[in-house]
Specification:
The complex is a heterodimer of chains A (about 210) and B (about 575).
Chain A: H1 28-56, H2 71-96, H3 100-131, H4 140-167, H5 173-176, H6 178-208
Helix pairs in contact in A: 1-4, 1-6, 2-3, 2-6, 3-4, 4-6
Chain B: H1 11-16, H2 21-51, H3 60-63, H4 78-113, H5 122-141, H6 160-163, H7 170-198, H8 211-242, E1 254-255, E2 258-259, H9 268-302, H10 309-322, H11 338-366, H12 375-392, H13 395-398, H14 400-406, H15 410-440, H16 446-472, H17 486-489, H18 493-522
Antiparallel strand pairs in B: 1-2
Helix pairs in contact in B: 2-4, 2-5, 2-18, 4-5, 4-7, 4-8, 4-9, 4-15, 5-7, 7-8, 8-9, 8-10, 9-11, 9-12, 9-15, 10-11, 12-15, 12-16, 15-16, 16-18
Classes of the chains: A mainly alpha (about 210), B mainly alpha (about 575).
Chain lengths: ~210, ~575
């Protein structure tokens, strides 16, 4: 079968996978991650709508304090997560400055902070609720709390896996295509900011209001 | 496909885990055709039961008598009927039509029409097919678990879908399968959008894109934005079933004489809102790609530019936006209040306008054309009439006053089947006949194609037209036996014709399948541009090799420059200077 020409584009290389498109000003990966985040907005948006609908339709809705959520621990976790958003930007900036070892350091710190967040959530906060007989079936407050924080936790976990890959085997790309690795870290950072932002909505919604 | 040059690929990486958009498109198309046949089979059994209540189903009834689905005499049981109904809808929409329209045609045609070597993310593309495949396997698996698959209609409304089959797996598996299918279309549609926006060939501005590409762009945006709420809803129903939460269970719900022991405080309407927030845009996910295909075929076979191309594009974009604010017209009868109903009734009337604009563009495009009655053109012409019937019969459903009477009757079934079956499916068959030579290098047989067309046209109308009569007579949908009520007994004679219609349709489809497989080897060899078409995909060889084009593509003009005065030939391809 014919199909091979002299031109690089014809030979199956994907245009704008690294370089920016002249009109949109971004590359394919960044465009893709923004679209993905748009769908994530709709996913969490639907859950927040459910929260609003169920709450306004309820006779009694506990505040986080009444429901026994630990506001201090929640606040600490909020700061940890916001901190990790800063450190992932540092990792990306290090790559931009061609400082590979600084990248590794900041990435590692980001991953550790995410793991701390997850550990506090899953190994401390959730078991404490179970110990007080608070399960998803207890009330719609807890049903929403466990569903949305659980789904958010899954997003954190997914981010940790990806960041672990980009710190470990994925970082070899630095030696062959540094531009591409930098782009991947930028996309990961965008995703990570989004996951943070969701938590910034979740914390007041469940713990404070 | 023959070997292509220096990339030595193993059988697995070339035909199974391929990252070539063309092969993934073909994988999507063949898999979804299988599911369409399977969903059609379920429907044949259901229609046999309606036409011959309580009679043994021929061929398979005897083999499977007394199981989950069939009664001891081999007839379709009431629960089996519900399961087949729910799975017919689920399979046809989520495993058949959408994967064929977006996964099949979107994957195969879009990169070729924009002059790109592949999709923007080839590996993600492969993943989207395989996640779809797993979703399909999960759905099929639910037929084999104890208690059978989901039986609550394709809308799976709670509380019914949560409280009745407690401890059974079918509905839970359905929810799991949906998560796979949603993930798959998310990956696929992101890929299509990025490909269209970022990877157009030099000179191919947005308003030089073929209408098919525009339709895929709007469709993909609908999939990206509308599917996630259903995912959220599926997660909540999953929690209700597995962890006994009460997202959708109100307080004090009485089941079999006892108050249900759940926390309560939930809202069944929440499910309906989230479900229809997906499922109404989904209607346009079904019809827009079909409109795109028909536009290509009409311009090509009238040998004229599409009349009002820009109007059609703007109408498609407006259709996409508006489809997000009409969903609750599916819920007029739920008691959500007259204010809400009035709002959604108004938006529903507004959304009919862009559909009419697009249809008008197609009809006026026929005027004064030297029409070639090829097989794709026959399907395109029939599509216009069938879609018009489907669309116009939707108006009385969108107005609350008439919907009171027609709601939940066979009229509704008739309406949306005219849109999806002879509507969308005819559009998709049209596309198969049109692009088969590009995909395989050979033409489908013309005579067999015409037979397939005429038989399908007659059969589809035999099956679906009586539904309007039944529905206006007041016959309810979802009934296992129509003769339960007097109102159904008077109209039961129609079910015989509908059942015969399914046999005829099976015969027509058999002709198509024979044609489809035979033409792979025996079809007339097609050149690069067998239809004398103008769009960019015809610049590539048939079938295109790895990387699609043999020389770089540059686009010089709009998509449909047919019969330009003063030119030697009646088509001026976009890719020729």
């Amino acid at each position: 079968m014919s199909g091979h020409g002299a031109n690089a584009t014809v030979d199956g290389e994907i245009p704008h996978s690294v370089t920016s498109h002249p009109v949109t000003g971004i590359n394919n990966g960044k465009f893709g991650i923004w679209l993905f985040l748009a769908s994530e907005v709709m996913l969490f948006g639907a859950l927040f709508s459910a929260y609003v609908l169920l709450r306004v339709g309820s006779l009694h809705w506990p505040t986080g304090f009444d429901a026994g959520l630990n506001i201090k621990v929640g606040a600490m976790n909020t700061f940890i997560l916001i901190g990790s958003s800063v450190t992932i930007v540092m990792a990306w900036a290090s790559l931009k400055l061609k400082d590979f070892s600084a990248y590794k350091k900041w990435m590692l710190i980001t991953i550790i902070m995410s793991c701390v967040f997850l550990a506090v959530k899953l190994a401390y906060e959730w078991p404490e609720k179970f110990a007080h007989d608070h399960y998803p079936r207890t009330s719609n407050f807890y049903a929403l709390y466990f569903l949305i924080t659980g789904l958010h936790g899954l997003h954190i976990l997914g981010g940790v896996v990806v960041m672990g890959y980009l710190l470990g085997p994925g970082s070899k790309l630095w030696h062959t295509n540094p531009e591409k690795l930098t782009g991947r870290i930028e996309c990961t950072g965008l995703y990570w900011h989004f996951v943070d932002l969701v938590w910034i909505f979740l914390f007041p919604l469940f713990y404070l209001l | 496909m023959s070997d292509h040059g220096h990339h030595e690929q193993s059988f697995i990486s070339k035909y199974v885990f391929s990252i070539d958009h063309k092969w993934i498109g073909i994988q999507y198309a063949v898999t979804s055709l299988f599911f369409l046949l399977f969903g059609f089979g379920l429907m044949m059994i259901m229609r046999y039961q309606l036409a011959n209540p309580g009679a043994t189903i021929p061929l398979i009834g005897g083999l499977m008598a007394g199981g989950t689905f069939f009664a001891d005499n081999g007839s379709l049981g009431a629960e089996g009927y519900n399961m087949f109904g729910a799975m017919h809808g689920t399979i046809m929409i989520f495993l058949g039509v959408v994967p064929l329209a977006v996964g099949g045609f979107g994957n195969f045609v879009v990169p070729l029409q924009v002059g790109a070597p592949d999709m923007a993310f080839p590996k993600l593309n492969m993943m989207s097919y395989w996640v779809y495949f797993i979703g399909g396997v999960v759905m099929l698996f639910s037929f084999f678990v104890e208690g059978g698959p989901s039986q609550w209609g394709w809308t799976v409304y709670p509380p019914l879908s949560v409280i009745v089959d407690v401890g059974k797996l079918g509905q839970t598996i359905w929810l799991g399968g949906m998560v796979f299918l949603i993930t798959s279309s998310l990956l696929g549609s992101i890929n299509i959008i990025v490909t269209i926006v970022q990877m157009r060939a030099p000179g191919l501005t947005m308003f030089r894109l073929p209408f098919f590409v525009w339709s895929q762009l709007v469709t993909s945006f609908l999939l990206v934005l509308a599917f996630p709420p259903l995912e959220a809803a599926a997660l909540m129903q999953f929690m209700d079933r597995v962890f006994h939460t009460s997202f959708f269970l109100p307080s004090g719900l009485v089941v079999s004489g006892k108050v249900l022991e759940v926390a309560g405080g939930g809202n069944p309407l929440l499910w309906q809102h989230l479900f229809w927030f997906l499922a109404h845009p989904e209607v346009y996910v079904l019809i827009l790609p079909a409109m795109g295909i028909v536009a290509e075929v009409i311009a090509n076979n009238t040998r004229k530019p599409l009349w009002g191309y820009r109007s059609a594009v703007y109408a498609a974009i407006f259709l996409g936006f508006t489809s997000f604010i009409v969903w609750a017209h599916h819920m007029f009868m739920t008691g959500m209040g007259t204010t809400m109903s009035t709002f959604f009734q108004t938006t529903t009337m507004i959304i009919s306008v862009p559909s009419v604009i697009i249809l008008t563009v197609f009809i006026i495009s026929l005027w004064g054309g030297a029409i070639r009655f090829t097989v794709p053109m026959l399907f395109a012409l029939a599509w216009m009439v069938m879609f018009a019937i489907g669309g116009l019969t939707g108006l009385p459903l969108g107005l609350t006053a008439t919907d009171l009477h027609l709601h939940d009757t066979y009229y509704v079934i008739g309406h949306f089947h005219y849109v999806v079956a002879p509507g969308t499916l005819f559009g998709l068959f049209c596309g198969i006949y049109y692009w088969y030579p590009k995909a395989t290098g050979r033409m489908l047989n013309e005579t067999l194609g015409k037979l397939h067309f005429w038989i399908s046209l007659v059969a589809m109308n035999m099956i679906f037209f009586p539904m309007f009569i039944q529905g206006m007579g007041g016959l309810n949908r979802r009934l296992h036996t129509q003769g339960t009520y007097q109102i159904g007994r008077d109209l039961e004679w129609l079910t015989k014709y509908q059942s015969w219609g399914t046999y005829i349709l099976l015969f027509g489809s058999a002709i198509f399948f024979v044609n489809f497989w035979m033409s792979l080897k025996r079809g007339k060899v097609a050149g690069a541009n067998p239809w004398n078409a103008t769009t960019v995909e015809w610049a590539a060889p048939s079938p295109p090799g790895h990387g699609n084009f043999t020389s770089p593509v540059t686009v010089h003009r709009g998509p449909y420059e047919y019969s330009v005065p003063g030119k030697d030939q009646d088509f001026s391809p976009q890719f020729v200077a």
